[in-house]
TrEMBL record:
Protein's name according to its UniProt entry: Bacterial transcriptional activator domain-containing protein
Molecular function per GO: ADP binding; DNA binding
InterPro entries: BTAD, NB-ARC, P-loop_NTPase, Sig_transdc_resp-reg_C-effctor, TPR-like_helical_dom_sf, TPR_rpt, WH-like_DNA-bd_sf
GO biological process: regulation of DNA-templated transcription
PANTHER family: HTH-TYPE TRANSCRIPTIONAL REGULATOR RV0890C-RELATED, REGULATOR-RELATED
Gene3D superfamilies given in the database record: P-loop containing nucleotide triphosphate hydrolases (3.40.50.300), Tetratricopeptide repeat domain (1.25.40.10), Winged helix-like DNA-binding domain superfamily/Winged helix DNA-binding domain (1.10.10.10)
Listed SUPFAM superfamilies: C-terminal effector domain of the bipartite response regulators, P-loop containing nucleoside triphosphate hydrolases, TPR-like
Domain Bacterial transcriptional activator stretches: 102-247
Superkingdom of origin: Bacteria
Organism this protein belongs to: Saccharothrix espanaensis (strain ATCC 51144 / DSM 44229 / JCM 9112 / NBRC 15066 / NRRL 15764)
Amino acid sequence: MNTYFKILGQTRVLVNGAFTDEWGTLKERGVFAVLLLHIGRAVPARILAEWVWPVDKSPQDIAATLSTYSTRIRNALKRLGLPGQLRTEDGGYRFVADPETVDYHAFQRAVRDARRHGKAGDHEHACEIMEAALGLWEDRPLADLDTDRADNWRRVAIRDEWLSATDGLLYGLYKRAEFEEMLRVAKSAQFEHDGDVLLAKRRLQALYSLGRGEEGVQYFFDFYRRAKDEDRPEQADELRRFHDRLVADDARPAAGSAAAAPDGVLSPRHLPYDVDGFAGRHDLLARMDDLVPAPPRPRLVALDGPPGVGKTALAVHWAHRVADRFPHGVWFVNLNGFGEGVPVADEEVVTRLLESLSVSADCLPTADARRRKLVDVLSTRRLLVILDNAVDGRHVGGLLPLLSGCVVVVTSRVRLSDLSLRHGARCFTVTPLEPELATGWLCDRLGARADVEPGAVDDLASLACGLPLALGIIGEYVAAQPGKSLGEFVTRLRERGAVLRLGSDSTHAIRSVRAAIDCSYLALRPGVRRLFRLLGSYPGLVIQHGVAASLAGLPESEVHDQLEALVWARLLEAREGDRYAFHDLLRNYAAERVEEDEEFEEREWAARRMIDWFLHSCNNADRLIFASKLSVPMFEPSAGVTPLTFPDAETAMDWYARERGELVALVDFAVENSFDEHLWRLINCIGEVMMRLGFKDEVLRSMGVAVRATRSVGDRFAEGGSLCNLGLAHSRFYDYDEAERCYRAAHGIFLEIDHRMGLATVLRNMGERRGAIGDTAGALEHLEQALALARREGDPHLEASVLQRIGEALRIGGRVDEAITQLRLGWMLWERLGDAGDIGVSLSSLAAAHYEQGDHFGALSFAHRAIVMLGQARDFALEGQTCTTLATVHRDLGDLEKAEFYAARAVLLTRQAQDPKRQAGAQDLLGQVRWRQGRHREARECWGLALGLYSGLGDSRADGIRAQLAEWAEPDVPRRRASGEGSSIWGVEKL
């Protein structure tokens, strides 16, 4: 396969038999380099931007810029006759071509081929292929990219791929006894990596193999002192241990054999096969190496982790690596702590070990005699003993005193902290594999099939969720059916529970992931087991302590102990604070268990308690943030539910922002399970906060759900309020026609049920809508009716909100002096009520009105106070609008530096609020400021973005900007396709 593209250096392409980088701009080459690196996989626009632009230098409109670059790249590929196709899909880009047309992927394939030859003993071919592969690294990879993401990738690639391949070449040269060439390659690699301990080891190995011991000693001391001086003690000590082994007597029996010691006792060599293609765990392996130097001292190491995570594989792999450090033997035993049958008892382990040491247990009639004999035999030996699959620390507690002179590795599914406290063990938790390692392992397993469908390999690897057991089962399942495409397996295994059941076979023990988890689940205490399966009904990803207690219907103190037991059993992960999470496959398993083991009625009650907890927690947050407003009517929570309370409004806002994903998942769950009475209340509690935080899509969708829920339960009052809030959501999206339809429907309902507060609220929102579109007379008609109702009902908050909207309608209609009078009346009422958000709204409007009146310094005063209040309330849209006012004032006063600062701030805030109209205004203003600064190209870019936003909204201001751009047109002006205020029945600004 020919190479057409190079990214191991600058991004070059093959043209007329030679590679060139003169085919596009630096950024275009950078974009293409990222797509070549991820060839065959879709790269989301956001991720692509992180690769190409530093955080503070990304373009204002990433989507438009990437669209321009992708068009240019396609044109270049076509013009130059290069293979492959650049596709746009799902908000990202994918370059489709044979991976081996890219030097980096050709390098990876060659390295895999070289390693296969090396494993087969063909070191000559292995060295030839590896040398050719390393020759592809001509320069600093991804040289056209200068970002944190690219730098991080380069560091990992050089460390894990280039240095690893170089070490593979050095190993092959060593096996071929080409020590001079080995020394030359090591020295060459050390020009840029002289601190790498792996290269240092190979250099020492070559020197000693050449009989140049004095030079080896001198090099060792130089490296050792340098590492110590540079605060790299671990590397210094690692090379010291390696050097000690080189100079020590190496007449040791090979691993895998059994050699007789002088006393006639055999040295056992009993280990399972090493894992084929063992991946990752470099940090853990290094830490275990450091704990067990050569010659080894007695040591106890404990490995824990969830079922299927690869604890045994890690222990066995490490044992094979260090077997030569244990001339007296290595020995492995499966204690069967989790599995079919009973756990292996101490006495059976003692008997087996004695027999492996050629000591007949039959001559030792009592258990005590066998123990004494084992202690006597091991008193002059240093064995490596692996006690695999222990129930807990007590399971091995009786054995450890007998093995006190050995290096012992214990594995278990539960944390073995008691071994640390009682015996000084070092405990390590084995975690799931990183996605890249899982994908790499599967690629090796599937061979050429993986090259054809790289995207499907990624999907299959992700289904294993980082568990080597699941990964191995999936790999075997796919490899056994070579006639099917990998995409078919992805579709099949995405079905719920498919990966859990894969490999099940009732005639064999633990052949499936489900069977492996079964063992851990059945070992739990009944109460803990019940909590585990009830957690499987939780629809979100991160489980709060209170949610778990509500699901179980138990006090939080009791559930805390059960949660900790699940964490101890490695069936649940502890997260920050009082939060917990499942591994994906464990979540699926728990979901199956709750349906199998819990009665339907109990599942229903658990779900109701869970939703009660969220509903009342959200209501508590809502009442704290909007203390002066009318609350959503509530019912009492179920027994056993203790909702969250919050110390202040800021903490409540933080909680809302953090729990956004959990709340969305909960709403979907409530819809699926027909919890309609909870739904409309929950959605109306969370709406305004979610809108302020910029989550408009969720608000618009969920408010539609709330309306349907109220109709389902037949609550006309709730339906009217939810319709009013849905109309407000549409209004915030500038869909005024749909907002009007919702308001009219709500108005009809409130007339029907004669609810005056509802009428006042919907009239206020209808007036605001009319004011926003410039119908001042219609707006005042509605708002004056609303004001009369509010005063008749004696609601000062509603009165203040109406006064503010009257002022806004007058301001938009050009009646600025009247507007200021009304806005001040509303502001004074809100000051008495003390709501920071509402005060900020009033101050923002007053700032705009004073600017329009020609009072620049009055505008500045009100705007600065407004920003403080709106920042506290996290009303990003109005804070952005206020920044626009500040920028406009500073522009008119000639302070372009401050004007640019506030205009750029307005762009960021309105973008965060997903408010396209305010964002367009901020972009337009930023363009004006930059034009005055002489930054004409940047100004045109801002106007191009504003044009796209206004056009998407159907706003007539697009015509003016379009004419302006045409007057100062340049061929590279980007065009953008853009995506797509108010109160509620529950209170001002409520959604």
